[in-house]
Amino acid sequence: MSYNTRREFLRNLGISAAALPFVTNLPCLAAPGATARKRRLIIMFSPDGVVPNTFWPDEEGTSFTLKESLKPLEPFKNRTLILHGVCDKVRGDGDNHMRGIGCLLTGIELFPGNIQGGSDTPAGWASGISIDQEIKNFLQKDPATRTRFGSLEFGVLVPERADTWTRMCYAGPNKPVAPIDNPYQMFQKLYGRVKDQENLKSVLDELHEDLKKIRLHVGVQDRQILDEHATLVREMEQELRAAEARKAGHRVPVLEPGVREDNDNMPQISKMQIDLLVHSFAADFARVATLQYTNSVGQARMRWLGIQEGQHDLSHEPDSNADAQDKLTRINRWYCEQLAYLARRLAETREPDGQGSLLDNTLIVWTNELGQGNTHTLDNIPFVLVGNGLGFRMGRSLKYPRVAHNRLLISLAHGFGHYIKRFGNPDYCGDGPLSNLT
Questions:
Q1: What is the rounded distance in angstroms from the CA atom of residue 81 to the CA atom of residue 241?
Q2: Any domain includes 406
Q3: Residue 197 has pLDDT above 80, yes or no
Q4: Separation between Cα atoms, residue 274 and residue 70, nearest integer Å
Q5: Distance CA 373, CA 132 (A)
Q6: pLDDT of 415 strictly over 90
Q7: Are residues 116 and 217 in the same domain?
Q8: 152: part of which helix (H) or strand (E)?
Q9: How do 396-404 and 286-293 pair as beta strands?
């Protein structure tokens, strides 16, 4: 059935549209042709480059060693693909931090503008759509792959201000998409029932009778899926209440120079957002998601790791500063731990149809705006892929000869059956999709 038919199903039972989120993933209400294997994409961003000698494997091929920054991926090594030598060749206005995040998913120049970076000319927003939104639009055109939201944009400590350093997703030229970095706001977007975090009422309590009525009109498999979805929502509500009880709710203040007031809540917010992301995929609210940690020139202070300095300040220290290099390695390992947690949650969550796990049908792409912070290089942009969503051959370390990252963006589209020949600046698309991925 189509999305409208789901509404008709609820209407015929005399049930509120508020129950709609709980029936979007029921096989009995699926659109014609929707039984094909789902394909999903998550793009995860962390800022300020990496420490090359503690990040990139020395080896190429299937026999490689994960270095310190990537050690948390050990349980998923056979489902990991590490791409060295993929470079952001887009130039034009803006400094490398600005172009790094603004061109990362768009593959095209920034518009001229009045935002002045640390060097180079001022710039504005990106002049093209980002690959996540391109893929979302492709999926939303087909009833068999259309979902309630199409894509979801999650954030963790992303500044409230809107500028070139804080946005990586674009609905089109000059159309940045803001991530939601407040778990309460994201929960409200998904379920539409949270009025404020001080008065958090249970979605399930209010819909108890409606859900009971739905269970009487669907089959055994659908009832099981409905119960699992309700359990996930209950667990998330309990987490939100616990966070409120600890007075750790994310208030989304304007970013002050240096530390945000809720900087130390970053680990908790990260977990909550990842859990919500996994829930949204299990409910088939979207097939595309982004997860953005802070922003380009991100200045988190990871005191829970014993690090007092801001990340961006540390990233400017020379390679000869062994203490700074060690701290940056620990910072990137922490980001990798978030990636590993996301992969684990997807792996332990079964598909609604019972055929494998969410990770079997999801590709996570972890990336960055820079290759290395103290050189501000756009060469060797980190691209670490985890999962089995797009048919790439995983469990490998690959090294490319300075290829344009536009080709990887094209490959992501092809993984969804969207066979575009170019994406972003066509000057960097001539060789087509990135070789040796499939």
A1: 38
A2: yes
A3: no
A4: 19
A5: 25
A6: yes
A7: no
A8: strand 150-156
A9: unpaired
